[in-house]
């Protein structure tokens, strides 16, 4: 029976032990190690203990992730797989402290995400953070999370079994999906925080219990509490499909990942797109990242009653495709000149917000010669229908 | 249902109060609903807000906007999921509508806020003065997505294109789409109001529907609304 108690500020060691107890098999151990990396980095010289309060940087984020009490304190939402627990994920909050030099002078912040998962599997852990919008802060975040930018991860190209997924983009986290590989380790981490406070793992004042268990929504401090954690519910992935809490979680749960056959067809289409090169290759990579994150879902519409054949978050990280695109028109062009690869390009154009004045409308659909909108095609969908 | 009745009652109370105050009034949220639901309660404030959003809807010379003057509720259906009465019926319209909340992409009359006739009249006046045609956004939903090219497109316009739009209640906060954009609190701190708009490009080949948050701010001196930004959230096509 898992320990569902909520750690309080008075019980820091107990919290850590609870985490380590749960992280017991290989994949989870890898997460524990990575978490330790985070803690260790947070304890280093570059991550400071709170000493001041109330400057603009903190105030810019404090309302969104209340309460943040320190100018250098920035919040993270965390989701941690609990394979041995009663609930699939354990959700929590944590605070990362940045040195003054890493803060943006104007208080600007960005969303910063890191996701640990094996390709095609559910994430082992997800961190959704708000951090200062400076190169130094991003670098510190990368270091803290064990990330190394510049290594593109494509489907089937993960190394060591654990893929770190992350994205950093001004304003919102969305496009630069993922780029690093972190090998797993079976080494049980020490508790770096025993050496001193680094992460405020309790958020707030500790009284509300900022760690909570996902699943039944009845626990104190659960994200279902109005005003307490609805941000966390939205931002911590993956969702609890027993109780999806918003439309995107519902989408994630309702549609299904590509079947093995659909996956083969999709891989084949992506390969054709990469061979074609140019923007098609970029769009295939974007889909690869989305597949790796499990965010490409297929919607079965065999009876043809659904009023749409595809959907995509614009700047978001969700895409749906009608299963019909894996059938007759996998490689054959439809009457409108589309096939599976073309549709991949179409939805990825939306995903990447490819809007070009004079070429597309505000949604990203190409303009026809007469100046009207062509809803069949986006910037690259025709060229990439290979 | 009880909560819905309660909040509708509160909306009406706010409408009554707002007629006197001339301001945007807040309606305290109930359990299970967003913390606050706001509705523009004075005709003057509503008209000003409405005008700014209408003027901000992106159009093309050959794709003018057509706006439904009615108002969608900004309750949790705009942010959450709609219960699926048919269970997990795969491949059905019900399942799809569970995936995409009906009130955003497939609104019907049950999702409308009961606006006073005067507010509706002033909204219609705004459209007339701006040269924007009215549309029945609830009828426009019958034009299926262009991506599903195998579906019957007879409900779509036979010729000419337009961008159908219908707005939801304004809320004092920033843009919000779960997992994509969440600026509710920072927006609130900045004094921003956000109007979610369902925009649907209507073409002979089918529709493309986008949920958009228009973030607005009001100059405290002139009380004029200005568009801070337009955030596209999700496209269904």
Written overview of the protein:
The complex is a heterodimer of chains A (386) and B (237). With 386 residues, chain A is an alpha+beta fold. Chain A has helices spanning 12-22, 26-43, 56-62, 135-144, 230-235, 247-254, 260-276, 279-292, 340-351, and strands at residues 73-81, 89-97, 109-117, 125-132, 163-169, 180-181, 212-213, 296-299, 310-313, 319-322, 365-367, 373-378. In chain A, the strands form three sheets. A seven-stranded antiparallel sheet of chain A has the order 6-5-3-4-1-2-7, with helices on both faces. Chain A has a three-stranded mixed sheet with strand order 8-10-9, sandwiched between helices. In chain A, a hairpin with a 5-residue loop joins strand 9 (310-313) and strand 10. With 237 residues, chain B is of the alpha+beta class. Chain B is 29% helix and 30% strand. Chain B has a six-stranded mixed sheet with strand order 4-3-5-8-9-10. In chain B, helix 2 packs parallel to helix 5 (117-130). Chain B is globular and about 50 Å long. Residues 1-40 and 79-99 of chain B have low confidence and may be disordered. Strand 9 (310-313) of chain A pairs antiparallel with strand 10 of chain B, so a sheet runs across the interface.
Question: What are the SSEs and their pairings?
Answer:
The complex is a heterodimer of chains A (386) and B (237).
Chain A: H1 12-22, H2 26-43, H3 56-62, E1 73-81, E2 89-97, E3 109-117, E4 125-132, H4 135-144, E5 163-169, E6 180-181, E7 212-213, H5 230-235, H6 247-254, H7 260-276, H8 279-292, E8 296-299, E9 310-313, E10 319-322, H9 340-351, E11 365-367, E12 373-378
Helix pairs in contact in A: 7-8, 8-9
Chain B: H1 2-21, E1 24-28, E2 36-40, H2 43-56, E3 65-72, H3 93-99, H4 102-105, H5 117-130, E4 133-134, H6 137-140, E5 162-172, E6 176-177, E7 181-182, H7 184-189, E8 193-203, E9 206-218, E10 225-236
Parallel strand pairs in B: 3-4, 3-5
Antiparallel strand pairs in B: 1-2, 5-8, 6-7, 8-9, 9-10
